[in-house]
Records
---
Amino acid sequence: MPIDFYSKLTNASGVYTFRDFVLVPGRSDVEPSKVDLSVNLTKNVHLNLPLVSSPMDTVTEADMAIALARQGGIGIIHRNMSIEEQVENAKRVKRAESFIIRDVVTIAPSQKISDALELMNTKSISGLPVVQDGERMVGILTRRDVNFSDPKEQVSQVMTKEVIVASPDVTIEDAKKIMNKRKVEKLPVVDQNKRLLGLITIKDVYSRERFPLATRDNQERLLVGAAISPYDLDRAKALEKYVDILVSDVAHFHNTNVLEAAKKLTKEVAVEFIAGNLGTLEGARDTLEALDGRVAGIRAGVGSGSICVTSEVTKAGAPTLFAVAQIAAAMQETGLQIPIIADGGIRAAGDGALALAAGASAVMMGNVFAGCTESPGGLIKIGGKYYKPYRGMGSLGSRQKRFAIDRYNQPAKGIAEGVEGVVPYRGDVSTVVEEFSGGLRASFGYAGASSVKDLWVKARFGAVTAAGIDEMRPHSIILPGEEKI
Ligand code: IMP
């Protein structure tokens, strides 16, 4: 059959972006403050806010993941580091909070105070249960004990021997009462034989009250995800015990070799797997078929990221809003209800609302979170203003560290698919999340939707013309700082 080249152009479908639509206001009896923004990111992972931070080396390491989980979202630890470093980041998130810490760092009575100091500093902890023969608790060593001692002294000479402890069935309320009454900040949990089973810290007890929306697992630890390549089974196996989800981190998941690798990998690991990135109905359909029940979520969007030059360089792309709607159509077709994560190009809450309205359950952001205090990298001052570094994982800088190199199928010459730069400093994650969720709530209010699922039903899209884009933002006014323009 002859190829009809001309029809390929004339029948081309629109690939819509966030700039092309608005949410048409609907009749509403929804107060923004009453909107329920909680969602299922996967079957097992429930978020109180639909926000996910990108696995990028200028966005998500342990600090970001901790801060975002405390606010109700989840961070995905990037993979541009060794397996050991990535596992350590995940462990840090899991250790950051829990009612009873199970993975307790301890010290032996025969060790030196200098050893204790080093442990406290490297692990950022302030108290060490002292354990004989690897299990029996004989004392506790706090930073106060250590600070006033000779580093050459033995732990047994300095430790507090009379330790207030709790039994394994202690409740959060009991622990709080004991700690307040006895004025202790650490409460070891021991069995009848004084075997150390865990540790409760006052910080964790109060953290539940300070962060009521935090996303937690069934041991009260914060939720965390990690990025992997579908080819990297070793990494997936090393991470599976410490993370709640593994997130595929390849630019083009709809590739026969990638699908094959993911198929093998998902058979070997027990933790839920988010596939991606995908941009089309066919991509989602083939993924669902290939992985046959082992897809817990899909990362949608190819080429929309703010640091992305994929579409510019290769002219290949499925903008995030289009990708979400396409993959949502695949879900309709298959009858599966697998959550979709809109990934790339989200600049503000309104874009997030559009992505959710198009069928997503959560939004993944790199740029927005890169500007927060908790992202890796220090503040950069330029002309009196503060910025933070931000770069694509396909940028030359990122690719100089070898670990992420397989995200992009680089030709031998190594064409960069990402750029490096800086983004304005936005403050702490808590401030940014508050602003963003406030914006989402307002959008939901206009649409008359009380939850994400309600938005899926009620949202009406309005198509904006190229001329309209100019009208639908501040215009005909000179804003402060723009006086010279
Ligand atoms: P942003 O929030 O618009 O900055 O988009 C972040 C998303 O861009 C990430 O979650 C990735 O899916 C994607 N991404 C990360 N690095 C690159 C890159 O170097 N090129 C293209 N896309 C990238």
---
Amino acid sequence: MAENFLYLTFMKTREDLHQQLRRIDGKGYKAYKDIQGQFDFEDFVLHIDYVQGDPFASPSRLRLRLDNHFPEWACRNRSREVALRDFLARQFARCIRRFAQGQRGSGKSGAIFICQPGQEILERTAVVLDKDKLEVRFQVGLPAFGRRIAGQQAAAILLEELPAIVKHSLFPEALDEYRLREHLLTNEDADALRDQLDALNLVAFVANGALLPRASGIDPRPLESGLPFKSPDNMVVEVQLPNRKVSGMGIAPGITLITGGGYHGKSTLLRAIELGIYNHIPGDGREFVVTHPNALKIRAEDGRFVEKLNISPFINNLPGAIDTLRFSTRNASGSTSQAANVMEALEAGARALLIDEDTSATNFMIRDHRMQQLVPKEREPITPFVDKARPLYEELGVSSIIVVGGSGLYFDIADSVLCMVEYEPQDLTARAHEIARAYPEDRSAEGEKSFGALPRRAPIAESLDAQKGNREKVRAFGTRSLQFGTEEIGLSAVEQLVDNSQLNAIGDALLYARKYMDGRSLAEILEQVMADIESGSLDVLSRRKEGHSAVFRKLELAAALNRLRSLRVE
Ligand code: ADP
Ligand code: MG
């Protein structure tokens, strides 16, 4: 109430905004700067924080703040609050489509934007709860004809469309309570399931009845005609969650193989596990496919940059006596890139590695007896993953889940062997071990028996230079890449990034992390940045309160840093 009282005395109103728009109608675009400020709309306060310089520039930044009218149950804990905010962002986006006329006039004129969530429920800054206030952050292309202000159109957007959007998206009575409740409780249960994984001694859980395949290679919605998941009987785990009981396949720590014929659903299962680090919206099919939060997809990525990384557990004796304790390249091969990806994952704190033969370098994964005869170890720098996966688990506690349909070499080291048969996993562990005994491989294990040393590098702050022209410029392109000053960080091989807003936040986090780059190790820096976000919010990363950030893991922050080609370490 005190806040309202201040507003009455100092704040301009909706009518003031209308008059200002009438006054600047038809003037040059710069006159829009006059409407920067706050306006009381009674139901909410509109903040026009930043007005774009011209109709073709990035759209203007606005926020609206209102009392939170949602009942206590909807904000009771963090899981529910995050899901409520996610739900409201979706609803707001839906109402933009319903009530806003959209683009009219030149450039981005007339369009209203809010970041558009996909299949995942992510904490994002588009909608935030700040004590008892709800804040929505969005953008508007302030309309113009040519470069002349279209005042009437602006009035229609800000004074008519926007209030209609707010009325139908941000008040409990406008929402379908059943859907809202399902959204919140699903998120709460998925979080609870992930929290229980350690206690259940699991690295991943795939619920019976889950629908794993996607509508298409470019459409992440469920394939409605897909066969629901069914766990092998002996692997079924039952878990009591706050709002339901689920049963499904539990994957224990250690080395798990996913084998089976081509096109029988191996990669689809692994992909679902990869994305089980996130919660999914009701109806997605993967609501209760949940993975250890520090599980990381590892793949080959030839051409990538690597900076002074210890890859010696996997690569030694490179031609030209190249140092593999401090291996640098601007153009890694398939196998060295995959080795680098594993070593960087360990450096950043990954607890499980997810590997698919489809995206792996064969010579990184296996080396058989005949090849050992033809190319002696002295002339093969690579120690294949099959010789390192076991010490990786036993010494460092890092599990592997590996899709492999093309080689039985992994039978000897696997704790568990699944075989996909027409999209349904069978547990063939005993059979695979029997085969391994009946047909022993002649090959000899390669490399040191123990895993070897882990990298410990200290990034140098000055090597993260985002200057372009006279200002720092960091910009995300889809989930593909980040522009960082004059550098481009390619992220298409970092497969667990799912949202453009995550890249925006990672871009901000790279700049932010520089203050900790004072000789500290990369692992320490990552922990520090994540702790700051945890104790504040994503807003700590950026001066401007923008609505286009979403949560990311330290593993993806490290991945972006490691792919910045100007990076230097001590
Ligand atoms: P693999 O890796 O074993 O060769 P994929 O996982 O790529 O096979 O799956 C092959 C095809 O089968 C894909 O088009 C995928 O969408 C589809 N698919 C996977 N799982 C299912 C399922 N449970 N029901 C129906 N189709 C599925
Ligand atoms: Mg495959």
